[in-house]
Predict the structure.
Amino acid sequence: MSETIASGDYVLLFLDEKRKWLVRVREGEVLHTHKGVVDLGSLMGMPYGCMVKSSKGEEFFVVKPTLADFALKAKRATQIIYPKDLGFILMNLAVGRGSRVVEAGTGSGVLTGVLASWVMPEGRVYSYEVREEFLKVARKNLERMGVMDYVELKNKDVVEGIEEGDVDAVVLDMATPWLVVGHAYRVLKAGRVMASFSPTIEQVQKTVLEMEKVGFVDVRTYECFLREMIVKEGRTRPESFIVGHTGYITFGRKVIRDI
Ligand SMILES: C[S@@+](CC[C@H](N)C(=O)[O-])C[C@H]1O[C@@H](n2cnc3c(N)ncnc32)[C@H](O)[C@@H]1O
């Protein structure tokens, strides 16, 4: 059974591993590439996985974008969280469909979009961001991912407080996460997880010490490495150049001691 491409769908046009375009299919829309022009309107009604030829006769495959495609092709107002870290964060939060999650800062909205796609349609992500101009970029990225209906963007400083209560997770990716640990503990449901992503070990240390002070347990910090393999007959080996460092990820669980 094949799924058919509809007007308004985002599709990934694949030329080769280094050349991929995330585009929206609509009547009259075209994509200009150095390999010719692709008529995007002509894709409506075609099955996903099909091949389309450009005006120069080059072959592009039309595939369904993954969450990683949306993340890597997002418009960037800030540094984003990469797919290797996004997946690991999701696996370590106690959240799923219907969960309510608080996040700060929104930045480009990449983590926001992944969280929203995990908790939708009944769940919500409440995302705090101090810089209004970043929220505009994040909104565009979230609309492109089709998850804006499940996100509340808040132009607020999260250090001043979190307005939601009884939430299923708190996730931080901001310069001073240790200043939000107390708020996170207060608004989290007991037994649930907070996570914090930080590029430097100094931030991690301050955050972990604060998490232990306010009463989080099972506080753990990780760094994720991802290395692609180049598979060729007789020449299979790891990729030479990789993203060396993105950030450290800390998790902790809220418990109640006095029951
Ligand atoms: C690295 S970016 C977040 C990127 C985001 N996780 C993504 O994947 O696109 C960090 C963001 O935190 C925001 N920020 C820093 N301090 C904040 C605060 N006290 N309250 C709300 N947002 C804050 C910054 O303006 C910045 O946009």
Summary: The first helix runs from residue 67 to 72.
